[in-house]
Specification:
395 residues; Nucleotidyltransferase, domain 5; 5-stranded mixed sheet; 21% strand
């Protein structure tokens, strides 16, 4: 989310200044009107009028008193938990998910449907996703939460609302934005799940670097497919053709097995969830974690081998990008107690670094992408409240 740092002095002043005020409330609430004026450079009277508009639109509420340097505490302003909400949806290889997030970032609805989507036609899975979305929108309505839009996380390349390529699903191009938008009546965006997982981690994860939220890191989505979300300066790096972060297809064993992408020895074939389960001789992630907890040698060896291969890929990532941290997400977060040590040792061996960047474990796990999808919607409202008011305020 980009928030202006100074008041606008040109056409579009009101829209820019609404974003300036709402952004300050989002960053520092509870905050008083006088504090907003001092921090933004707007006059107190301008702030008062803008705050009135934002309260009327249901985006700001008067809350606990704001801290005051002297005198009596002033009335505080905060984001409205009953204001604009975002719908996050996710299609992954072995599940569908939905989350509704309110303007403060709190999840207000969460549902996951476990099923293997690889052998199913795209239209069948999209129909199921629409039912999941409708149930989520009904929950939002029952809570009095106005949905500002939706975002779908997908395990592949998405361009202009279309899922263009999803190797692990084997689908042709699918126009998800129109299909889900028509069914829900919402404006729908479609983005890569690894990128959204990285945003979810930045916005809702607990990790910090030197006392500040992580803004330069790589989030590794470890599912059946493996993706990398690259965050630089608080923004996702998507690449010239929206294909950056395909960590799963970094070659870590040139003589390894053939991958669905056409290459050999890709990380996905050496450390993907399906490969780990097969080598451990178990059927599910729950079986695998139980086996690791029981000290089963085959399970521990399978996870350790995956950790070593992951470390080979991450060594190249660290050399190229120099991030402050690597965050293990998805299945890698679940397996971190048995995988992280092997990954760290492999990174150190292949980089020669005595003190490599921190290897962190996501607390969001497999929910990171769908949380990021919902967060994308509400962050868009905070960045441009005027557009939301135009679309959603009754005339």
């Amino acid at each position: 989310m980009t928030v202006r740092a100074e008041p606008a002095q040109h056409a579009g002043m009101r829209a820019s200044n609404l974003a300036l005020v709402l952004g300050e409330v989002a960053r520092t609430s509870p905050v008083s009107r006088a504090q907003v004026a001092a921090r933004t450079g707007l006059t107190k009277s301008s702030v008062s009028g803008l705050v009135t508009d934002l309260i009327s639109a249901g985006l700001i509420v008067e809350s606990a008193p704001a801290a005051a340097e002297r005198g009596r505490p002033a009335t505080g302003l905060g984001l409205a938990p009953g204001g604009a909400a975002g719908l996050g949806l996710e299609i992954n290889v072995d599940y569908l998910a939905a989350v509704v997030t309110d303007l403060t970032g709190a999840p207000r609805y969460h549902h996951v449907v476990r099923r293997d989507n690889r052998d199913r036609a795209a239209d069948e899975v999209v129909a199921d996703l629409i039912e999941v979305a409708r149930t989520a929108t009904a929950s939002a309505a029952s809570q009095g939460l106005p949905l500002a839009g939706g975002c779908v996380a997908v395990p592949g390349l998405a361009v202009d609302g279309t899922l263009v390529r999803a190797p692990n699903l084997g689908w042709p191009e699918v126009d998800l934005a129109d299909a889900v938008g028509e069914a829900t009546g919402l404006e729908i965006d479609v983005q890569n799940e690894a990128n959204l997982a990285a945003l979810g981690e930045m916005w809702f994860g607990a990790h910090q670097h030197e006392g500040e939220p992580l803004r330069d890191f790589v989030h590794v989505s470890g599912e059946i497919g493996i993706g990398g979300g690259i965050v630089i300066g608080g923004e996702v790096f998507r690449g010239a053709h929206a294909g950056a972060g395909e960590l799963g297809h970094v070659v870590v064993a040139p003589d390894g097995p053939r991958c669905g992408c056409g290459g050999h020895g890709c990380l996905e074939r050496m450390a993907g969830q399906q490969e780990i389960l097969a080598r451990a001789g178990v059927a599910t992630m729950s079986d695998l974690t139980r086996a690791c907890e029981a000290g089963d040698r085959a399970a521990l060896d399978a996870v350790t081998d995956a950790g070593r291969h992951l470390g080979v890929a991450l060594a190249s990532v660290l050399t190229l990008l120099d991030p402050a941290a690597i965050v293990l997400g998805g299945a890698f977060a679940t397996l971190a107690p048995w995988l992280a040590a092997a990954t760290s040792a492999s990174v150190s061996h292949h980089t020669g670094a005595a003190d490599p960047p921190a290897l962190l474990v996501s607390g969001l796990g497999s929910d990171a992408a769908v949380r990021g999808a919902a967060g994308t919607v509400v962050r868009r409202v905070i960045a441009d409240p005027a557009a939301y008011l135009t679309r959603h305020t009754p005339r």
